Amino acid sequence: MSTSGPLEDADLVQLLTPAGELREHPEYSPRIAHLDADALRGMYRDMVLVRAFDDEATSLQRQGELGLWAQSLGQEAAQVGSGRALAAQDYVFPSYREHGVAHTRGLDLVDILRLFRGVDQGGWDPEEHRFHLYTLVIGSHTLHATGYAMGLQRDGLVATGDRERDTAVVTYFGDGATSQGDVSEALVFAAVNNAPLVLFCQNNQWAISEPTTRQTRVPLARRGEGFGVPGVRVDGNDVLATYAVTAEALERARSGGGPTLVEAFTYRMGAHTTSDDPTRYRSTSDDEYWRQRDPIDRLRTYLQSAGELGADFVADLDAEVAAFGERIRTTVRAMQPPAPVSLFDHVYGTPHSTLDAERAWFTEYEASFVGEPPQGQVAPAPAGASAGEVAL
What we know:
The protein has about 400 residues and is an alpha/beta fold. The protein has 13 helices and 7 strands. It is globular and about 75 Å long.
């Protein structure tokens, strides 16, 4: 099965060709006119660091240091381009593969690995970076994003005319998630409420082993039409086009123009997760086709041809990648399991008497093992606790 055709679709927004040549687009080229050489090198640096992070995380999982890892190999342009289009006040609801977006929001990528190491249930403060915790349940977070966007409306943070105040929300999901009911419900609520929301679908063409051709008969960007949500299909391996399309959709959302569905057509060059073997369902010819359209190679070719990728910059970036890799390995291997009693932390935003009682009981129960009590001995449950609470 060939997947090569869609990159030549007339409706696909592309500003930088696979050969690294700029193309003019009447609507979207002006959106990148302000990006100077420093900005483009910054995007290149972002993608290189994110891929290095992804490679290190994959290696750590193979060494038994992580329980699982979801690779973003090949999707760096879709993530970095869209992430760089966000304003500081915008809010992101990711799924579990948006490492590049997390990087653009200032999150220390090593913190993400705490979740996959199993030492905590998230690892960062969502409000600090305006970047929500990773969501492993496919598609459910699109409803959370829609609700948050509707809340922004009610708080008067949309269409005020103040660029520092008007806020939008973007939620990321894959092509497989579009087959989930939650995404359809999010489209319904976003449309009828004119929510300031960008629904960003990274169509990497495979929902684990299920190709997009088994999920839809039309481009995913057209899914929004039936809900009254405009859709745009962009070359997800083109960091400039992704930036331009996302910037336009976010601006519309902040100004009260409502939601947009963006389909970033890309390719997952790695496995779905480290528990997956893509050689069982993908052809080597398709893999090779997409490796020749690598998003990092594309921008590097353009910068080199423009004389904007000097030897000093490349050497400094190589050194930064090496130091970053060492910090990732050292930090992850030093991560220790949390105290079991910490599972009671962050359950409620305010003190809760029942939880306090359960924590006290659990602390006493845990302490009873210090003296190696007889096998099977269990401390009595707190008064009024149910069997389910004791099981906790």
